[in-house]
Amino acid sequence: xxxxxxxxxxxxxxxxxxxxxxxxxxxxxxxxxxxxxxxxxxxxxxxxxxxxxxxxxxxxxxxxxxxxxxxxxxxxxxxxxxxxxxxxxxxxxxxxxxxxxxxxxxxxxxxxxxxxxxxxxxxxxxxxxxxxxxxxxxxxxxxxxxxxxxxxxxxxxxxxxxxxxxxxxxxxxxxxxxxxxxxxxxxxxxxxxxxxxxxxxxxxxxxxxxxxxxxxxxxxxxxxxxxxxxxxxxxxxxxxxxxxxxxxxxxxxxxxxxxxxxxxxxxxxxxxxxxxxxxxxxxxxxxxxxxx
Length: 292
Fold this sequence. Notes:
Elements lengths: L1 E5 L7 H10 L4 E4 L1 E2 L2 E2 L5 H13 L3 E9 L25 H18 L3 E4 L16 H20 L3 E5 L9 H11 L4 E5 L1 H6 L14 H8 L3 E6 L1 E4 L8 E4 L8 H8 L5 E4 L5 H15 L1
Parallel strand pairs: 1-2, 1-12, 2-5, 5-6, 6-7, 7-8, 8-9, 9-12
Antiparallel strand pairs: 3-4, 10-11
Helix pairs in contact: 2-3, 3-4, 4-5
């Protein structure tokens, strides 16, 4: 097990974030926003700079949190847009996303990681989409995952597919089914239990409508390649956005027993708390205390 955190959760300045993370006692990082762009947009020179900065603080890079297949419409006529302007993200057609993935693979080789995050496609803004993750959706996404897998395989990269509440596979068990349909040896699950918790139930097929996170974890654990950690507190009075980000050990998900199980994983446990920078530092302390 390795404990890490996505650097922009601490500070937008990569070097400053690395300094704070190292000073907090953490030995590893994950990278998404860096140098004012998403990691898959970085060129070779920037990749070497990332490596040099991380090395100077003794930090291992465990994953590149790319946005490949996120802001890309699954079907013609779908329109997709960002939920957060501070979440740097690539756009373009599937060929451009695959080009960015190739670039991310080259960056991964330079910085010394063998994992890259991808997504199961954003749900559209302009369509009244009810249930997501239908058989048709899964088949379409699986075809694209196979294309991504072939690119990653050339670089000995494992892709980790995140269950995301803004995507066609918000629940981890749905994402697991997608992995098995794609049947790619180098694609694993990026498990985010909080994303499963906050998935909109009206979008989720009945067989996957459960809030039992420990049971879900045991269902998907053999397919996990990476783990994201955050927490929420549900406040009904804040509808239509009732899920409020909290510090790791302060929300509705009881992480203490879950972390006892997760720390046996070879996959990295990577914080993505989505709270203030100061609270994110506290999350580092909470995670390290809980697993050590």
